[in-house]
Amino acid sequence: MRVLIIGRGGREAAMAQKIVHDDIVNQVFVAPGNAGMHSYATRVAIDETAVDDLAEFAKEQKIELTIVGPEASLAAGVVDAFSAAGLLIWGPSKAAAQIESSKSFAKELMQKYDIPTAAYAVFHEATAAIAYIKQQSLPIVIKADGLAAGKGVVIAQSYNEAEQILNDWLGDNKLGSSGSRVVIEEFLSGEEFSFMTFVYRDKVYPIPLSQDHKRAYDGDLGPNTGGMGAYAPVPQISEALRHQALLTIMEATASAMIQEGVPFTGFLYGGIIATIDGPKVIEFNARFGDPEAEVILPLLASPLIPILLDILEDRKPVIKWRDQFALGVVLASEGYPQKPITGTMIKNLELLDNVDIFSAGVAEVDNQLVSDGGRIIVVTALAESLVEAQRKVYYELNKLSKDGFFYRHDIGNKALTK
């Protein structure tokens, strides 16, 4: 069997490594992949949004299953192109992917079908949005309606900050078309968690909960990023709350998508917060989370490909999880997320032991890996306890040269201090 993974980051590295370790496929291709993948996957020089070229490659190479990693590919309609060509692909259609690519679509869906979420309003124009903000309490959440690579959400602590963001996005077009419309939401308090699921229309198979760390620096300080680390499962979220979120959010959303005529297939990701009124949706993603994938997939004891094939063919899959904890930390370039410094050699990577290393923003120069983006690698450890997984990761990270890089030192602390 030949498998194609679309994407280039740590999530795609985690999927490729999992499939290779499962040892039931002949070859794994990654398009476009990154320089850290060459030892276990075949890179393909096709951009993840070049949907026609990707479909043509899959036909030529007789790819039997394609898995979509990034949201940009889904928003570009890669699933539609593959389906039209008779190619088997895991991921939602462009219309269904609006659950992530359009914040207003997601909010309207939740409002229509009574799926719990924050109160909100949608604006196209800065003056009206600023007038609305001044009538709300602080802090307040401002979201770009479209995809913004993890940088389209601001929690404004003051009216001046909120006004500046709205003028930047709606007035000065600093996020381009992604920020030409904004969703303004009430701020919700509580414990946040990521609830990912395998979905095929009305069939929803839960994945262990995880918790991402979005802020750049220790103590949840600094700007929002694409994610600085994660762990799974999340012991401070009770089984009762998880079950409530499964029924009232994840399963209810899958059902709502069918009723709207845009049935969902793929990884449906609920960013959820446990409020005093129960679980509520912060956001939806239409794909596997990153860096959540880098802690979830090491916990998956069953082979991944049979799970996806069974679900796509409407058979009940066998899904078994290791009774362990996984914790992963992102090594990021200095300057990330605003202006990451690239081209820095990643020294001592070969010294890391007894951990998984998932490459992301890397390139190869003179047979050495160098930084080529904001998030460089994710280092993940498995252990019988969360504290041991955390200890293992940071022990290994201390072996790396810190010149030109940084990472958070408190991934997992929220669970350990409960």
Automatic annotation (TrEMBL):
Its EC number is 6.3.4.13. Keywords: ATP-binding, Ligase, Nucleotide-binding, Purine biosynthesis. Pathway: Purine metabolism; IMP biosynthesis via de novo pathway; N(1)-(5-phospho-D-ribosyl)glycinamide from 5-phospho-alpha-D-ribose 1-diphosphate: step 2/2. GO terms for biological process: 'de novo' IMP biosynthetic process; purine nucleobase biosynthetic process. PROSITE patterns: ATP_GRASP (PS50975), GARS (PS00184). InterPro entries: ATP-grasp, ATP_grasp_subdomain_1, PreATP-grasp_dom_sf, PRibGlycinamid_synth_ATP-grasp, PRibGlycinamide_synth, PRibGlycinamide_synth_C-dom, PRibGlycinamide_synth_C_sf, PRibGlycinamide_synth_CS. It catalyses: 5-phospho-beta-D-ribosylamine + glycine + ATP = N(1)-(5-phospho-beta-D-ribosyl)glycinamide + ADP + phosphate + H(+). Residues 107-313 form the ATP-grasp domain. One of its GO terms (molecular function) is phosphoribosylamine-glycine ligase activity. Pfam families: GARS_A (PF01071), GARS_C (PF02843), GARS_N (PF02844). The keyword Nucleotide-binding applies. Its cofactor is Mg(2+); Mn(2+). Belongs to the GARS family. This is Phosphoribosylamine--glycine ligase. It comes from Culicoidibacter larvae.
